[in-house]
Design brief:
The protein is mostly helical. It is 69% helix and 0% strand. The longest helix has 19 residues.
């Protein structure tokens, strides 16, 4: 089992506090605070991809627990254009979960999807296909 040493203390604390919450109201308070924190962190300039990837994972938690994380959707689209395969896959995963077929962000992803579908790297093709099945009707 992984020790989680590759994750930041903030992400580990978030997961721990969500798991230890005793009521839905307490969980909502934690997630609302996290959403507010993420909004300000996403506004910072020149965030490294590693930090952006983690912020996006935290936004996934916010969204999965029923709160709005729409402020992070464009950053998910931007991560799909990364050269780093792990970062690209996190971006595609977030896009698959966040973006629906009627979103204007789908248009921004078309060139990236076309490029990744023609890639020689089968993992890039697989990542693109994963999101393609979700956002194309």
């Amino acid at each position: 089992m992984s020790s989680g040493s590759h994750l930041s203390k903030e992400l580990l604390d978030l997961v721990k506090s969500i798991g230890e919450s005793r009521s839905k109201q307490e969980e909502d308070k934690i997630i609302t605070g996290e959403a507010m924190s993420l909004k300000t962190k996403f506004l910072e300039r020149n965030l490294p991809e590693k930090k952006m990837k983690e912020l996006l994972i935290r936004a996934l938690y916010v969204e999965m627990l029923g709160h709005d994380a729409s402020f992070s959707y464009i950053h998910a689209v931007n991560l799909t254009q990364s050269k780093n395969l792990l970062v690209k896959r996190i971006g595609y995963l977030a896009c698959a979960l966040f973006i629906d077929t009627n979103s204007d962000l789908v248009i921004l992803m078309i060139a990236t999807l076309q490029r990744d579908l023609q890639s020689k790297a089968h993992l890039e093709v697989l990542a693109a296909l994963t999101v393609l099945t979700k956002i194309v009707n």
